[in-house]
Amino acid sequence: MTQAIASADTSRNSLLMVAAGGILSGVLTPLLPTLVDHILGLPGQFRISLIAVPFAVLVFVLVRRFGVNPWWAAGLAAIVTMIAFVCAVNAAIFIDAQAAGASKLMRFLLAGLTGGMVGTAVMALGIGLLPAGPREAA
Q1: Which member of 79, 94, 107, 122 lies 3.0 to 4.6 Å from 84 by CB, making a disulfide possible if both were Cys?
Q2: Taking the CB of residue 50, how many other CB atoms lie within 10 A of it?
Q3: What's the pTM?
Q4: CA nearest neighbour of 56 among 128, 114, 119
Q5: Distance between CA atoms of 38 and 131, rounded to whole angstroms?
């Protein structure tokens, strides 16, 4: 009985750590564009991918911590995260430009939904290609 209680606390602590990492990456990501703009000579797509670094680091840590995958799988998951971020931002920009005649609220809504769906689809495809192994629930 004691082991069951201890394992529930460990799972809850792991979930809180994941939530804290998500909040930290969510706070850092909007702060990076001003820092990245000071770096001269980088192409636009690479700049967008640099903004995704906090979220990619979170994905790297989660894949390493909760999966039994090789180290390179975690690195690949982080790269896929950055690619998905760039694709999502580009899709949102495209949809925002296509809905130029609509109200500002509608453009933001359509762009956000499209970016979210594209990012989710790219992440699902990319992470689905990683080697499968036993996993611990977060």
Answers
A1: 122
A2: 17
A3: 0.79
A4: 119
A5: 38
Q: Identify the residue with better confidence: 62 or 1.
A: 62
Helix (H, G, I), strand (E, B) or coil at 67: strand
Residue 131 has pLDDT above 70, yes or no: yes
If one counts every other C-beta atom within 10 angstroms of the C-beta of residue 6, the result is: 10
Tokens 């797509």 belong to which residue?
45
Round to whole Å and give the CA distance between 111 and 69: 35
The pLDDT of residue 57 is above 80: yes
Per-residue model confidence as pLDDT tens digits over 5-37: 444 555 667 888 888 888 998 898 888 888 888
Q: Give the chain's end-to-end CA distance (angstroms, integer).
A: 21
Residues in the chain: 138
**What pairs with residue 67 in β-bridges?**
135
CA distance 112 to 117: 9
- Average pLDDT (93-120) is 93
Tokens of 46: 């690479």
CA 21 – CA 50 distance, rounded (Å): 18
Taking residue 2's Cβ as centre, other Cβ atoms within 10 Å add up to 6
